[in-house]
Amino acid sequence: MNHFFARHLYLVDFTVASLGRRRGRNLGLFAVYVLLVFVLASVSLMTHGLRREAQAILESSPEIVVQRMIAGRNDPVPTGAVAAITGIRGVRAVQGRLWGYYYDAGMRANYTLMVPPDRPVESGAVVIGGGIARLRQLDTGDIVHFMAPDGRIVRFTVSGTLDSASELVSADLVLMNEGDFRAFFGFPADRFTDVVASVRNPREVGTVASKIALALPEARVVTRADMLRTYEALFDWRGGMVAVVLSGAVLAFVILAWDKAAGLSADERREIGVLKAIGWETSDVIAVKFWEGALVSLLAFLAGYVLAYGHVFYFSGALFEPALKGWAILYPRFRLVPEINGQQVATIFFFTVVPYTLATIFPIWRAATIDPDTVMR
Amino acid sequence: MLFHPTIMALLLWSAAAVAGVAVAAAYGWTILMEWNPASGSARQLVLERRTYLVSTLMAVVLWGEVLSLWLFVYNADAMAVMFVGAMCAVGSLNADPYGFPALIAKIALFFLAVVWLQVNRADNQGWDYPLVRVKYALLLILVPAVVLSAGLQYAYFSGLRADVLTSCCSKLFEVDREGVGADMSSLAPMPALVLLYGGLGLTLLLSVWTWRRPVLSAALAPVAAAVFVAVMVSVVSVVSTYVYAQPQHHCPFCLLKPEYGYVGYALYLPLFVGTALAVSSWPVHHFRRAASLAQAAPAMTRSMAWVAAACYVAVAVVCTWIIAASELYYFR
Amino acid sequence: MTDTVLISLKKVSKIHNEGRPNEVQAVVGIDLDIARGKVTVLRGASGSGKTTLLTVIGCLARPSSGRVALDGRDISGMPERFLTRIRQETFGFVFQGFNLLRGMSALDNIMLPAYPQAPPHRWLRRRALDLLSMLRLEHRADTPVEMLSGGEAQRTAIARALVNDPPILIADEPTANLDTALTREFLGIAETLKAQGKTLILTSHDPRVFEAGMVDHVVTLRDGRVEERR
Ligand SMILES: Nc1ncnc2c1ncn2[C@@H]1O[C@H](COP(=O)(O)OP(=O)(O)O)[C@@H](O)[C@H]1O
Ligand SMILES: [Mg+2]
């Protein structure tokens, strides 16, 4: 055992020295390696961060949402449903919600208009999210005009903006009071967008949800756990898509690694020959080459990951902004909560270090089994 | 559910492992067929050099399998939110009938790979490579094993369906699907503890004995394999409940989580290493019959038995510590 | 020292690129005994097979046919892995072009052959420094080898060959690029080593070498066969 460690210590020592002697040679590969880890880790940290954010939002979202479905489409829920649900055992509180989307043609952006249940907004006033405030350069006290669906121009005073802590959800929000909302959209007075319910005992969410479904046959009942699962699956699916897209890059990297490991310079070839001639065994040479790969991988992985960490958590994934902006004009300025988890690290490891190692086995073996008498020729 | 980064990583790896073992076996086959130590021909030298490629490939496959086993379990735990009724990895593994078979195949593959590498290590100490034929015949057995493991894993992941909302139905998922996570076999505390300490004691005794008399590895290997299963059963039945301080929570995987101080690693690491060494001590010792290994093989067996004994002590210590530190009491 | 046989070659042949169009019979049916503790010189024109024979004697290559016995043990069919181990313990090599690893210091180069054995680092360093001072090179210990002069490089190569304390030292054309003074210096070192009980096997077509007083045996090769022994 002691000999095992001592031998590897010597071999690592030699490897470090030989990497030092050939700093330039591995630089190109190293840069590509770092870049690949950086991109994969950025995507992964970003998805994970967004998922956490979504989870946090869901934690505070209602346990049960009741919608009405007509012909497979959402339809406003009659206000009577609130009373019907309140009557069900185990239900603690029920509330009808009013919200909808508004398309700002001038800015080509979608806003979410909403009546806040817990925050009174004066008639004729709106509270807007940070994204809208930036987009339209609005501040408290400014006047804003929205065009109602029937063509009327409605004028609102900005009475406040939402803080940026939860900007991922609030960037595109416009809060207004119930009367304004119904008048603006011409929303029937006896309807809500949907109804939310909370449950006394969290373990009974499922039971209560099925009771609601029984009581209101045309309703679609969605629990928080359902949403959570759906989000999870959605994020994983997106991550999977990105991985598929990036697999081309991984493949290119593998080919580069193979090529680099196979294309030994005459000098390196001679060096291996010398080592073998002076008494190194094939497995010693293989070990040195593996250590070389391990050190390069470790450094590249660390560098790529640290860069990605900084990119995602300190620069809010700035390099992805153009890509994400394609999805929404109101790109949220959020700060994700830094978090690293083992699964992500291992997954990226399997997409980078493992292919690298596999790609280099064969070339390493070829190099290590050259005849020991080559140097005598 | 194949579009998931970790699942894709695991599937890619298993494909790579199949390819790696297949290449190793193909080279092994040429070695098996043409090996002729008496010949000084260039061909024999080529074959000798191929042995390095094969053992390097196998070592990489082994380490990849270790990492992939870990990631597989970790991922199963992380996926639990997507299945109704699943609380942790057990639920995810039960979400499809191939879940547990895939896990067991992965574990079996790990042990097979260790045995192969240990036989290989023994062979490399005999100057005439006395085990070449045995070794490469064994390698051919590993091919179906790695293919099976990859196949089961694929079947598992492709069969998984997250219980997600679809835009057009009012399907409710929160129906009672109790028992999805509850079908792991469960022993009562007392017999489980007897099984645990009895099994550990027996293997410990046998490995110390093997250390003194390597012949006994023939007994140690099968006992160690059986005790591995016994220890896993009692971990599920009782040790885990001590960790969680909940008599109903039987899960061998949550032990790996930070909430429980990663105690699972302290438990499984020595258990897997000890079992792997104890199991491979026998094939290695078997080869003392080759003249060139008459000394080396028993020496290897002894050192393996020694390390295995230390591992079993560690497992026992960790279990005892878990039980002593727990807030759960079955016996007063 | 008795004149016993250390290495014995029986009908040794070596064919390069066997079975290919560029096949070369470099060494043909050589019977040769190398005496323990003596200096043997393989002599012959360029291309006569000296180097090839040296690689077979030094376990760097296996003979295509015939037997090689080291200390009575047949090593001709041994796998490379074990041949390497034997070579490492038994032979030290001084190559024709020295083949020091560039970018590393003289001291590191000297320590290199011992790495796989992994002796205690301090001990190894001490041993390498001792060898350097024996060869009057201690002041060059930390010099990168590409800065060494020809003679210094050769002495570094000799020190590297000796670091594992092998009983046999093999040198291929040791004086090929040396002037008279340096050749004399090399012969002096060889004599010291012989006095220490080492067996030396050299190749050379340089009369200064094979006519030197300390040389015990000269084997002349021509076209891969032994032409004459002395
Ligand atoms: N690796 C090799 N491949 C092919 N031919 C070789 C090789 N090494 C030596 N030879 C040939 O074998 C013959 C003997 O060469 P060598 O042993 O180097 O002779 P010397 O050292 O006496 O000059 C020469 O014809 C040479 O061209
Ligand atoms: Mg020559």
From TrEMBL, chain A:
It is found in: Cell membrane. One of its GO terms (cellular component) is plasma membrane protein complex. Belongs to the ABC-4 integral membrane protein family. LolC/E subfamily. InterPro entries: ABC3_permease_C, Lipoprotein-release_system. Residues 266-372 form the ABC3 transporter permease C-terminal domain. GO terms for biological process: lipoprotein localization to outer membrane. Its main location: membrane. The chain crosses the membrane at residues 27-46, 237-258, 298-324, 345-365. It is a multi-pass membrane protein. This is FtsX-like permease family protein. Keywords: Cell membrane, Membrane, Transmembrane, Transmembrane helix. It comes from the Bacteria. It comes from Magnetospirillum aberrantis SpK. The lineage of its organism: Bacteria, Pseudomonadati, Pseudomonadota, Alphaproteobacteria, Rhodospirillales. The keyword Transmembrane applies. Pfam families: FtsX.
TrEMBL record, chain B:
Keywords: Membrane, Signal, Transmembrane, Transmembrane helix. The keyword Transmembrane helix applies. Residues 1-19 form the signal peptide. The chain crosses the membrane at residues 52-73, 100-117, 137-157, 192-211, 223-245, 265-284, 305-324. The keyword Nucleotide-binding does not apply. This is Uncharacterized protein. It comes from Magnetospirillum aberrantis SpK.
From TrEMBL, chain C:
Pfam families: ABC_tran (PF00005). The keyword Transport applies. GO terms for molecular function: ATP binding; ATP hydrolysis activity; transmembrane transporter activity. Keywords: ATP-binding, Nucleotide-binding, Transport. PROSITE patterns: ABC_TRANSPORTER_2. Residues 7-230 form the ABC transporter domain. It comes from the Bacteria. InterPro entries: AAA+_ATPase (IPR003593), ABC_transporter-like_ATP-bd (IPR003439), ABC_transpr_LolD-like (IPR015854), MacB-like_ATP-bd (IPR017911), P-loop_NTPase (IPR027417). This is ABC transporter ATP-binding protein. The lineage of its organism: Bacteria, Pseudomonadati, Pseudomonadota, Alphaproteobacteria, Rhodospirillales.
